[in-house]
Amino acid sequence: MIKSNESVYREAPVFERLIRSLKEECRVDMEDLKTMEKVINLAEHFSGRFLTDTSFTNLKYFLVLSLYRMRLKKYAEQDSKKNSKYEMAGYILKQLSDFAGIEVMEEEIKFLGRILNEMRYIKKTTSNQEIVKMQVITRTFIEHVSIDIDLNLQGDYIFYENLINHLESMFSSAIQDNTVNSVVTEVLERYPKIQEAVQNNVSVLEEYIGRKLNEVEISYIVVHICAAMERNKNSTERYSVILVCNGGIGTSQLLLARLKKYFNFDVADIIPAHDLKNADINEADVILSTVALDTDMEYIQVDPLLNDEDCINVGKKLSRLKGSHKAISRPKVKEKPEAVHMKRIKEILAADTPPEQMVFQIEEVVNEFCHKEVSMPLLAMLPSEAVRLNVSCESWQEAVRQSAQYLLRNGCIEERYISSMIENVEKNGPYILVAPGFALPHEALNAGAKKVGMSLIRLAEPVVFGKPEFDPVEWVCCLSAINKETHLKAMFHLVNLFHNQKFRDEIRDAGSGEEVYNAIKRYEYEMR
């Protein structure tokens, strides 16, 4: 009925009554619907695919139906296959899982992917084809800004990922509105040094996009950096927080997931706005609310998706609290996700549960673990056999060719990918030099990459690429990317490793690829 072209369904009262009943049954109100709309919009920018207004509305109502169905533990069981919309579907359902506190099954992602395939789209951003180049340029921009503000933001993966997503969205079309909101204006006034650092280094981004960035675009980049600073400033202490959400469990779960990602928060309570007067606010350091409150108590109003302006406001509040907040014991060692999920599986096996139910519960835990991390770890992308030492090359072009041989032999790239990488550097300059003595050649997603992978070589004699601050180059790592994110965390960690002088000194003396692999393993673990 939702997808039907027959106007009777849209105009007849029966359709509106059906949707109203579903919203009541699903306990989804207007605030939650708006949050769902934001999730769809985030997914559009994530995938570079933008729905028509009609398809956007259809998808929103389809998700309302899906939410209702999954809350009843009725899951899709179709024998669907992965299609080109699989990643977009996975992104949406991961957000929906945080939003509603439900488990998302693999078949649900495939099913939604099929639904998305039937939707209509108005455009697809071209930036996705050169996403790796933008990721490298963004890393260089962060490095330059970090030097100017004397604060190392290069190790903050969350900031890196957020800024990439923001820039991708911004570069797809220039911002037309030449005004900024009051919060952004306040940020600019409070952090003049950050604004100056961005303006001094924005040419790195402008060279990539091929145009000047306007004041509004620069302002929002400043906000992203300031939000990262506030999050990092408060990363070593834990705080107790009360969440006030009028939208029910959905909005609160989504906000809770965001908070745990960005801050060291322990949630003392989650309450509706009307019950705030009965809450024991003395148990918390901070009150966060998704709605305006009729109270004299101090609180911070935030978006359920916790945007950068929210992070700055929360960070300001936490800075004022330092030294006076409630002491919360902090665990010395954080268990790895695989250990936590293995424990849960052991508990399920030890329980007196019927076999059918036991299998279902274990599947839920496994699915949760598998969908928790989209990016591949560095060690999985760069095995010891992909590392070659003392490779003789007379030019940077030959170094790029040699770095790609492992990927070519293993079917990760086509031959044309190699010549495209060389042409890329000849056309755009040696931007692929991203750390002292280290180059990261790559090409666009449509230039012959077939599987994700990395291949690292150490040159017998260093060669010059043409970037004085990082020349001569001793190490070259060829990257094969098939989408915008599978390789991202691995690339982020590898570049950070080569910025570590101690790491470079150690692998310079390595006698085998296995030794380099073990050094990466040890240093990457320390960075987590």
TrEMBL record:
Residue ranges constituting the PRD domain according to the UniProt record: 129-235
SUPFAM superfamilies according to UniProt: Phoshotransferase/anion transport protein, PTS system IIB component-like, PTS-regulatory domain, PRD
Limits of the PTS EIIB type-2 domain: 239-326
PTS EIIA type-2 domain location: 380-523
Keywords: Repeat, Sugar transport, Transcription, Transcription regulation, Transferase, Transport
Protein name: PTS sugar transporter subunit IIA
Organism expressing this protein natively: Anaerostipes hominis (ex Lee et al. 2021)
